[in-house]
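Each letter names a residue; the fold follows as tokens. Both lines appear below:
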Amino acid sequence: MSISARKTVVCLVWIAVGVMLIWRGLPYAGLREADGLDATLSGNNSWIALAAGIVLGIGKGMTALKKGARRAVTHIEASETAPFYTVFSPVMILLVLAMVGLGLALRLAPYDANIKAWVIGILYPGIGVALIMGGLFVRTAAPLPPKG
């Protein structure tokens, strides 16, 4: 795959996961119907959680995910062409697996349902916004300068 194609794959994957996280967090924030939740936010709390998530996402997107996009571009541009399975670095794959595990733990752990609604209602949309921003940054980011 070419450099441009690999950047496009990363961009699309990050955006798709971001949209999925926003969608998964909206029921906890009380902004989408979902069965089986112990508690959801309602009224002004829903909008407060969404606003907090957006602010968190923009902050994370402009800092951590912007740098992550540059790291991804650095990895991609290390070779002119490469097989599809090398789009994501081994470190990125381990990071994603750890984040999936933490997300499952947040949803499945037995703690107060109202706290769970606040935590997931803020974090999931926030991380989703950040991932969407990071995906867009991948298309235009410059690689990190060489170490040394």
Q: What stands out?
A: The chain has one domain: 3-140. The longest helix spans residues 44-76.
